[in-house]
């Protein structure tokens, strides 16, 4: 097709109507600029945030062979500065100061850049954003610094099983195919080796940008509250200068897996405890048949968890604790269908039976033929989901659509492949036929393979071995696998039929306390914002006996896992139909339901019934105990920054216990211990409910009455109300004024080279005026801290300054993970930053101050996007006991009255280095590279070392609790 014909075809498509959800009130318009940049404008008059995403059809597959990671490095470098805005990092500073955020990611065939910002800052933000695709500056000095950030990002991933296994899949593929490549980049690939070859990385970077970043490969989404004419003019003006070199999209030819990469069994050693099987087939990419949805249909069946499913049978044998199935790692030219199974120890010993059962299930699908009713049901579920989808924050919305614009025709930009609508047995059958033994790759992970492997993957050091497996071997496994009753799922009773909206009599803005008894408290909030037939239910069972001892905590954990285990075959249908539930544990246990309200009551009553009739099944107890044991054992493989934050919480939050104690008592616990414990756990309880959404008040009250009737008011009640002395509190340690505490700890994983410092500054108890000073300071200091400590000093990829809230006690925390400096040195760099920032704060003009105040006010006035977001906000107030549902209004008022001097006074009292009232706690986790410092480092004179967390906690005073008053009687 000639250039003119191509242009004409594109122009004809401009007028195509874009399919949107029935409830979607936004306006969409597609435009094409003269430079061939395709743009989608989204007009949402109700939005509080504007956003944009630029998706460039170039990714790591386009990396030069001698510079792995160059596309990813360009993604890091592009936002440094531009000819029009030459001050380094001024873009990020502008975005942050206008209440927004910015980020980017590199995939195989695309790179996505995106931001959001308060509405009043959008025009300039968009101009700054456009300059990176027009005339970016990638200064040489920044290039050498930012290579360290890419290296630090890679260091963070080296001991992550997800990254390691993904690279291993790629490694065992054709070396001449870009799928084989290492895409992240590190110091070696971007600095050391290029220098040795006489390559200048910066020159290569500029060359890569100029050769690949062409307007015709870009897709832009702009989300705004402006009028259509205004935003169209803005976009045309700001983006028309992007060069169009008519570059064609790079799609690798050929398949990543040749015959030698198929029919293989790969044994590999993970970092974490546990065994996994991943069964992978190269298949026809679903993108070519997304209306027929072959992978979605087959993933739905193979990944099903109802009775008769593969997972249900594996569970019955005690061989698996999780299973998922679906397409992954796809592009236009190739794709993989992956089945992942989490194995128990017994399952690990029965690998051949499990593979045999999987192929038996595939045989069942072959024999049953492609079922119209299953496809119709799946299609109906997908359609309801699309038309009643929750509104999400604009930043995520634009990223998804910009990615879709590279792959789908314009009418399907919003739907992508989420609406399978064409029943085509032949297309589904074609993909099903590819699930054959002669096309399979099996990856089997277990620590038990340690010392029995003979290969090492070069980028992450993963140990593995490969053996060939023939059709006949797999056929043998199929024949010897147990002849279990595998069958297709039943019709789904949870598909909602009543999607009508309840009439809300009173437009209440905040939750109200509908009822309170000695057993329960019910908070209720009807939906007045979202007009979607969904509800949110949270039931928090306060059980004082749950936290009495490490044993009690573990048994409560096992109890919640067993409840979900018993419910799974039944409740899985609800989840497929868009009604989700979860049971969690903390000071008792919590039941959460979220989704279509139509059948929610049925699921809730089933959960309550399971609690009331709970009996321990010994075989399931053993499986869950094994699963939880591995979960606790794997906590030592958390990132050092996660370990440091955990220690910080352990020091600050009264009554918390370390997971090491739970791991110690776990092996001693048996099924009979749980049998004895559950009646004790439930014997005294008080449950607090929050019910919101498309539910009327009488329905909410009826739900609570039902729970009371089943648990408290039956002839032999399981539960009694709490005594007044038993109501739970959540108290936080009050650090002494003028004290700087330091808690050092060696990293739990001796192979991890990363160290981390969490530097926490405690401010005080929930108070509107104090809160807004803390929030405003965090907003003003966030970007300068990132710029200085990450961009300039390159301490590490994870460098964050953020607020912290422990049960209503506010503070600030710096979180920095690093391989280049140990915690002691990072502590000094944080203090040096605060001294430097003090000067900046004192030089701040009144206009700058007002601009930041207005940005924070806009952020506070931002409306909740969906029911889950709103419910999470209100539930936090209930759970903390603060109950300030009108918090935003009061904090906005406090902000409007705040002066610059008051912010400086706040800094001088709480944050400034050496401030007499300042209270700090630094937690240092020492990685492998800094373990000698841990052993040798003498405490710095101004730091008071904590050598025993619990001794320290007992010696400190506590803030009063906000919680524990609900439902109490006066003594």
TrEMBL record:
What UniProt keywords are attached to this protein's entry? Hydrolase, Metal-binding, Metalloprotease, Protease, Zinc
List, alphabetically, the GO terms of the cellular component aspect. cytosol; mitochondrion
**Residue intervals of the Peptidase M16 N-terminal domain:** 39-173
Any idea where the Peptidase M16 C-terminal domain is?
Answer: 201-378
Is this entry keyworded Ribosomal protein? Answer: no
Cofactor field: Zn(2+)
Q: Entry's InterPro entries?
A: Metalloenz_LuxS/M16, Pept_M16_N, Peptidase_M16, Peptidase_M16_C, Peptidase_M16_M, PqqF-like_C_4
Q: Where is the Peptidase M16 middle/third domain?
A: 386-664
| A Gene Ontology biological process term | peptide catabolic process
Q: Where is the Coenzyme PQQ synthesis protein F-like C-terminal lobe domain?
A: 777-875
**Top-level lineage group:** Eukaryota
Q: MF terms per GO, please?
A: metal ion binding; metalloendopeptidase activity
Q: Which family does it belong to?
A: Belongs to the peptidase M16 family.
Query: PANTHER family given for it?
Result: INSULIN-DEGRADING ENZYME-RELATED, NARDILYSIN
Q: Per its record, how is this protein called by name?
A: Insulin-degrading enzyme-like 1, peroxisomal
């Amino acid at each position: 097709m000639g250039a003119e014909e191509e242009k004409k075809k594109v122009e004809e498509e401009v007028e195509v109507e874009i399919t949107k959800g029935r409830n979607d009130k936004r306006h969409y318009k597609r435009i094409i600029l003269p430079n061939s940049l395709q743009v989608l404008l989204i007009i949402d008059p109700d939005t509080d945030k504007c956003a944009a995403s630029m998706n460039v059809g170039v990714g790591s597959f386009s990396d030069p062979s001698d510079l792995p990671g160059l596309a990813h490095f360009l993604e890091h470098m592009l936002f440094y500065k531009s000819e029009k805005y030459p001050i380094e990092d001024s873009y990020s500073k502008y975005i942050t100061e206008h209440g927004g955020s910015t980020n980017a990611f590199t995939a195989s065939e695309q790179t996505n850049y995106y931001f959001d910002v308060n509405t009043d800052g959008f025009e300039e933000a968009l101009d700054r954003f456009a300059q990176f695709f027009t005339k970016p500056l990638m200064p040489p000095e920044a290039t050498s610094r930012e290579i360290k950030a890419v290296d630090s990002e890679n260091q963070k991933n080296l001991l992550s099983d997800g990254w390691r296994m993904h690279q291993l899949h790629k490694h065992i593929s054709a070396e001449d195919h870009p799928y084989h490549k290492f895409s992240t980049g590190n110091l070696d690939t971007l600095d050391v080796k290029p220098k040795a070859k006489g390559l200048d990385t910066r020159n290569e970077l500029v060359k890569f940008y100029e050769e690949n970043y062409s307007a015709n490969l870009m897709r832009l989404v702009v989300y705004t509250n402006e009028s259509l004419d205004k935003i169209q003019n803005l976009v045309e003006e700001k983006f028309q200068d992007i060069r169009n070199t008519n570059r064609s999209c790079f799609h690798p030819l050929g398949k990543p897996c040749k015959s030698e990469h198929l029919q293989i069994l790969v044994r590999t050693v993970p970092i974490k405890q546990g065994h996994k099987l991943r069964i992978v087939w190269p298949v026809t990419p679903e993108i070519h048949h997304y209306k027929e949805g072959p992978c979605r249909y087959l993933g739905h069946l193979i990944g099903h968890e109802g009775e008769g499913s593969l997972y249900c049978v594996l569970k019955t044998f005690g061989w698996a604790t999780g299973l998922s199935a679906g397409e992954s790692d796809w592009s236009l030219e190739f794709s993989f269908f992956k089945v992942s199974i989490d194995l128990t120890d017994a399952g690990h010993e029965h690998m051949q039976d499990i593979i045999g059962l999987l192929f038996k299930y595939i045989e069942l699908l072959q024999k049953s033929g492609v079922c119209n009713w299953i496809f119709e049901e799946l299609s109906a579920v997908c359609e309801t989901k699309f038309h009643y989808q929750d509104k999400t924050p604009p930043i995520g919305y634009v990223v998804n659509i910009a990615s879709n614009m590279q792959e789908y025709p314009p009418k399907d930009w919003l739907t992508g492949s989420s609406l399978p609508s064409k029943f085509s047995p032949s297309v589904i059958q074609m993909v099903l036929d590819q699930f054959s033994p002669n096309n399979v790759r099996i990856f089997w992970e277990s620590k038990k393979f340690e010392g029995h492997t003979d290969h090492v993957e070069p980028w992450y050091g993963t140990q593995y071995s490969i053996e060939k497996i023939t059709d006949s071997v797999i056929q043998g496994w199929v024949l010897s696998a147990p002849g279990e009753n595998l069958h297709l799922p039943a019709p789904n009773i949870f598909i909602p039929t009543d999607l009508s909206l309840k009439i809300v009599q009173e437009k209440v803005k905040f939750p109200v306390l509908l009822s309170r008894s000695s057993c329960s408290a019910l908070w209720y909030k009807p939906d007045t914002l979202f007009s979607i037939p969904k509800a949110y239910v949270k039931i928090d069972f306060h059980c004082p006996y749950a936290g009495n001892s490490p044993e009690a905590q573990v048994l409560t954990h096992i109890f919640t896992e067993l409840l979900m285990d018993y419910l799974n075959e039944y409740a899985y249908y609800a989840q497929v139909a868009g009604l989700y539930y979860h049971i969690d544990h903390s000071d008792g246990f919590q039941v959460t339901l979220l989704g279509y309200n139509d059948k929610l009551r049925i699921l809730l009553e089933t959960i309550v019934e399971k609690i009331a009739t709970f009996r321990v099944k010994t075989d399931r107890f053993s499986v869950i105990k094994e699963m939880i044991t591995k979960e606790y054992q794997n906590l030592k493989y958390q990132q050092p920054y996660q370990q440091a934050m955990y220690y910080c919480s352990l020091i600050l939050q009264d009554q918390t216990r370390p997971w090491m104690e739970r791991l110690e008592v776990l092996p001693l616990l048996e099924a009979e211990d749980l049998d004895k414990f559950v009646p004790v756990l439930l014997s005294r309880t008080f449950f607090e409910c929050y019910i919101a959404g498309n539910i009327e008040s009488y329905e909410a009250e009826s739900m609570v009455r039902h729970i009371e009737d089943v648990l408290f008011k039956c002839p032999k009640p399981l539960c009694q109300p709490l005594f007044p002395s038993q109501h739970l509190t959540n108290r936080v340690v009050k650090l002494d004024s003028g004290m700087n505490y330091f808690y050092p700890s060696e990293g739990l994983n001796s192979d991890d080279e990363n160290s981390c410092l969490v530097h926490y500054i405690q401010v005080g108890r929930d108070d509107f005026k104090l809160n807004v000073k803390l929030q405003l300071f965090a907003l003003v200091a966030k970007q300068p801290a990132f710029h200085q400590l990450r961009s300039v000093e390159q301490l590490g990829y994870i460098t964050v300054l953020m607020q912290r809230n422990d049960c209503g006690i506010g503070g600030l925390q710096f979180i920095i993970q690093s391989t280049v400096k140990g915690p002691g040195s990072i502590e000094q760099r944080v203090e040096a930053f605060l001294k430097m920032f003090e000067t900046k704060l004192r030089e701040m003009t009144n206009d700058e101050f007002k601009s930041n105040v207005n940005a924070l006010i806009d952020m506070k006035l931002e409306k909740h996007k969906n029911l889950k977001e709103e419910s999470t906000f209100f539930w936090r107030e209930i759970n903390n006991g603060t109950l300030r549902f009108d918090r935003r209004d009061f904090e906005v008022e406090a902000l409007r009255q705040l002066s610059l001097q008051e912010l400086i006074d706040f800094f001088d009292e709480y944050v400034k280095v050496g401030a007499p009232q300042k209270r700090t706690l630094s937690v240092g986790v020492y990685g492998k590279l800094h373990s000698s410092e841990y052993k040798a480092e003498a405490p710095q004179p101004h730091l008071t070392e904590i050598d025993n967390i619990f001794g320290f906690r007992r010696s400190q005073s506590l803030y009063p609790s906000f919680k524990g008053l609900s439902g109490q009687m006066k003594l």
